[in-house]
Amino acid sequence: MSARLLWQAARLTLREGAAPIRSLGKISIRPRTYQFVPLLMALRLETVRLLIADDVGVGKTIEALLIARELWERGEIRRFAVLAPPYLCDQWQKELQEKFNFDAVVVRSGTVRQLERHLPPGQTIYDYYPVQVISIDWVKTDRNRYLFLEHAPDLVIVDEAHGATQSNRKGQQLRYEFVSRVAQEKERHLILLTATPHSGIESAFRSLLGLLKPEFAEWDMGNLTQEQLQSLARHFVQRTRRDIERDWEGEICFPKRISEDLTYSLSPGYQALFQETYKFCHEIVSTGRSLEQRRRRVRYWGALALLRCVMSSPAAALAALHARHERLSDGADLVLEEDVDFHRAIFESDNDETDDEQPSLPIAETVVSLQESEQRKLHRLVKLAKQVHSTDEDTKLQGLVIAVDDLLQKGYAPIVWCRYVATAEYVAEGLRTRLSAHTGLQVVCITGRQADEERRARIDEVDAHAPRVLVATDCLSEGVNLQEKFTAVIHYDLPWNPNRLEQREGRVDRYGQTAPEVRVIRYYGVDNPVDGVVLDVLLNKAREIHKALGTYVPIPEDSESITEAVLNALFLRGYPSEARQLSFNWLEVDPKIAHLHKKWEYDARREKISRTRFAQRALKPEEVQRELEAADAVLGDPDAVREFVLEATSRLGFPMKPDPRRADVWHIPLTGLPSNLPEAVRYALPHIQADTWEVSFVSPTPAGATYVGRNHAFVQTLARFLFEEALTREEDARAARTGALVTDAVDTPTTLYLLRVRYLVQQPNGRDLFSEEVRILGRTPAGWLSDEKALQYLNAEPRGNLSAEEKQQRVHAVLKEWPRLEDDVKQRVEARAQALTEAHKRIRKAMRSGVRGLQVTPRFPVDLLGVLVLLPKEAQQ
After folding, report:
1. Which residues form the Helicase C-terminal domain (predicted)?
2. Are residues 161 and 304 in the same domain?
C-alpha cells in the first residue's frame, strides 16, 4: 500500500518526536521496559543524582546512556563525561557511538596529545569535545584533576563506582576524593553505576550515597525513617534479575544459567609436585612464626602465591619459581609488606584490575629470607614442575580438553578462565593441539600483557559462525561484553574471591545474550586441597547465598582477613592426608572462618532488605509501557521498521527474505541487485564479502546478525529516498502522496489525511524545544473519525478497480475541500497539543515545581503530505 509506505517513511525520518520521551528517536537499540525505569526516575529530579545498582549483566550502561541521551535531547546538558576504569574506556566509546549516536572521544595518557592537536586556541579538551570517556585513574591524579574540575561538564557518569568509595587503599581513596570534588557542584547531574554498592563496609557504602546528597552519608542505613527511605528511594535503584523478570517483564528475559561442577584427579607426577610444594610452604610458614610481623607476613604471602601457581599449571609454577634466580642474584634488600601491595598478586580484587602475571615478587622476597638449606629445596620443585610440563601428566589439562570438546559438540562457545598469563598461554596451546579435529576451530588467548586495543581487536576478529574458544585471564572479567560470541564459562582456576566468579559468568550471562541457556562450570581437583579450601571457605558459601537471595553478595572482609582464613585452613593441621575429603568442617576448628561466614550471612540479610526497598516497585510496568507506546505511536516501533524495510526493499526490486533456520533473522540480497537501484540505497548497503546481509529488527540481536533499527543508516536512507521521491515525482513514486481505491473496509466514502505537525515545547527551565509528528486524520460525511479508526483504515486492501480519470477526480475534490477544513483540523491539532502537554507533565509529576510553565504549542499551518480516498464497493457501481 503506497499510502502506508509514505506514512512509515515520513515518521521514520522524524528526529524530534513529539512524545514526552524524546531519546527514542536518536538511539539505535530497543531497550527493555525495565531499562527505562532509571530514566523515569531521572526525569522526576530537578538535578539528576542517581545510584543505579542493578545486577551484573542487566544493562546498567544502557540505563545510564538513556538518561544522557534524554537530557541531551531536552537541551539540559551540552557536555558530559563517563569516568571509567581504563580497561573499559574503549567499550564505553563503542556503546556511545553504536547504540546512542554520540561521537565520543577517549581521554587517557595515550590519547591526550593527539586530542590536544585539534584544539582551537584557548580551549581545553574538556570544553572542546562535548562527549568524553575518561580514564578515572588518569584524571584523578594531581597533574590532571584540576583542569577537569575547572571545566567539568553538565553530567558525569561514574562506572564501577564501588571503586570510588572511602578506603584506606590509596588508589581507591584518590578516586573517592576526585569524584567528591565533582559532586560538590550541586547543579551537576551525576550517575553512579555499580553492581556491588555495598562491599560489606558500612562507611564505604555511606560514602557512596553521600556523593548523591551529603546528608545520605550521615544516615543509619539500618534504621531509616519512612521519610528518609522515601527520599533515598528517589535516587537509588537496585534490582535483581528475579525482580526484573517477575515484576517488570513478566517473562524470561535472561538466559537460563546451567551450573555444574566437573572434577579431575591429580596424576602421580602432579601429586608429587603438590606434596613437595605443600611441605615446603608449610615449613616456611611454621619457621616464619618467630620472625617479626612484617617479615612473617611476607612469608605467608609467598607460601600462598607459590601454592596457587603450582595448582594453576606447571607453566605458572615454572614462571613463578624462575623469578627466584633473578632475586637471589641481584642482592636487593627485602621489600616489606608496607612497601608493596602483595594481595593483588594472589587475590582477585573487587576494585582494581587484577594482576594476572605470576606472583613472582612475594615468592622471590620469601626466597631471599630463607636459609641456604631451604633454598636448595626449591631446585626439587623446579625439577618436578618441568617433569609434569614436559610429559603428558597434566590430568587437569586433559580433563579440560574433554570438557571443552563436549561443549563444542553441543554447540556452545566457551570461555576458559585462568588466573595467570602463563597458565592461559599454556592452556590455549594445549587446546589447539588436542582439539584440531574440530574444523575451523578458533582458540583465542587474551591476557593482561595485551593492550586494550589489541584485546578488542582480537575479540572482534572471532568468527561467530565457526567453532570458537576464548582462553582469558581476569583482565576481561569485569565490564566487558562477550555475550555476542560466547555462551559458556569454565573456571579452569577457581577464583579466590567469590565476587570474581559472578563477574566472569556475567560476561556471557547478561543482557544481549540471545542463546536460551548458558553453561557455567566450576572445575577443580578432587584431591587438590587448595581447591577444597577455596570451595569450603569461600565459593560454596557464595553459592548458598546466591541461591537464597537471587544475587551475589560481596565477601564482607578485606584481603587480610581472607588471607588469614585461607592460610589457617591450608596449614591448620599440617599436611592433608589422602583420607581428608574436600568438604571439611572448617567452622568447627577455625573461629576466623566462622566469623567470616557469620558476617557474610548478616550482609546477605541486609542486602535482601535493601533490594526489597529499592527495587522501585512504586513505579509500575504499565506506567513505563504507556510512555513507550506513546513514543512508538510517533516514531514507529521495531515491528514498524521491519514492515517498512520489507515493503521498501520489495518495491525497489531486492526483497529481503526470512532466515529458514533462525527466528527474527532476515536476509537482504547484496548480489544481483537491480540496475536501476538508486545510488544512495546501493551505497547504504554494507560492503562485505557475502551474497546476503543478515539483519534483525529485534534487540538483543541474534548472533551474527546486524541490528537494523529506525536510526540505522540503511533504514534512514530508504525512508529519505522514498519520502523525497513522493514529494518530487508524484507520477511514478513508490510511496504515492495521493490515491483512491475501492475497498470493503469502509461502508461510506472516507478520506485519510496525512499531516506533519510541528510543536514548540516550552520547558520550565526556559529551554524551548522543537518537536514534530506525522498524524493520520480520517473523515466521512458524518464527521471526523477517531485516531485509532483512521490508522486502521490505512491498512485497507483494494477490492475493485477505478479508472485513472476517476481517481484523479476523487482526489481533486478532496484537495479542493481542504481549505474549508482547516479550522476543524486546527482544533484537533490543538487538542492533541494539550494531550501532549499533560503527557509531559505526567512524566515529571514528582517534581515540586518542574511543571510550571510547561506547555506544548502547535505551529500552524500544518503540512498536508498526502491524501487517500477510500470508497465502498457500492460506489464503484
Report:
1. 396-567
2. no
Q: Determine, yes or no, domain membership for 674.
A: no
pLDDT of residue 345: 67
- Alpha-carbon gap, residue 199 to 594, rounded angstroms: 19
Q: Alpha helices, DSSP H only, in 785-821? A: 787-793, 804-817
Q: 747: domain range?
A: 738-877
Q: What is the CATH number of the domain that holds 223?
A: 3.40.50.10810
The predicted-structure confidence for 786-799, as pLDDT tens digits, reads as follows: 999 999 999 898 88
Query: What one-character-per-residue DSSP string does 634-655 give?
Result: HH--HHHHHHHHHHHHHHTT--
Q: What is the pLDDT of residue 480?
A: 78
Do 123 and 227 have their domain in common? yes
For residues 232 and 314, membership in a common domain is answered with: no
Name residues whose C-beta falls within 8 Å of residue 185's C-beta, 6 or more positions apart in sequence.
152
Q: Is residue 868 part of a domain?
A: yes
pTM: 0.86
- Which whole-number Å values give the CA distances from 853 to 73, 263, 758, in the listed order? 19, 67, 19
CA dist., res. 790 & res. 754, Å (int): 10
In single-letter form, the type of residue at position 634 comes to V
pLDDT at 802: 87
Domain boundary among 389, 417, 446: 389
Which pLDDT does position 558 carry in this prediction?
59
Closest CA to 321 of 266, 406, 388, 415: 388
In the numeric block, the cell 506544548 is attached to 856
* Total domains present in the chain: 3
Q: Is the distance from CB of 759 to CB of 52 less than 8 angstroms?
A: no
Over residues 163-177, the pLDDT tens digits come to: 888 887 788 889 999
- Report helix, strand or coil for 814: helix
- My answer on whether 123 and 230 are in the same domain is yes
Query: Does 866 share its domain with 809?
Result: yes
* pLDDT < 50: residue spans in the chain: 327-339, 575, 577-584, 586-587, 846-849
Looking at the fold, whether 74 and 142 belong to one and the same domain comes out as yes
Helix-helix angle 142-150:170-183, to 10 degrees: 10
Is 209 in the same domain as 271? no
Number of other residues whose CB lies within 10 A of the CB of residue 59: 22
Contact 730/786 with Cβ under 8 angstroms?
A: no
d(CA 152, CA 288): 52
User: Does residue 176 lie in a domain region?
Assistant: yes
Same domain flag for 231 and 272: no
Q: In 3D, which of 694, 704, 785, 693 has the Cα closest to residue 745?
A: 785
533 in a structural domain? no
The residue with cell 493520520 is: 776
Residue of 755, 835, 753 whose CA lies nearest to 793? 753
Compute CA distances 573 → 147, 287, 567, 570, 584, whole Å: 57, 15, 11, 8, 12
Please give the backbone phi and psi of residue 463, each rounded to the nearest 5 degrees, phi first: -85, 115
**Letter for the amino acid at 191?**
I
pLDDT value of residue 323:
61
- Of 69, 33, 46, nearest to 239 by C-alpha is 33
Q: What are phi and psi of 861, to 5 degrees?
A: -80, 160
The candidate with the shortest Cα–Cα distance to 613, out of 197, 326, 49, 271, is 197
Listed in sequence order, the residues at least 6 apart from 237 whose beta carbon sits closer than 8 Å to its beta carbon are 37, 38, 41, 50, 51, 52, 53, 54, 614, 615, 616
What is d(CA 29, CA 710) in angstroms, rounded to the nearest whole number?
Answer: 9
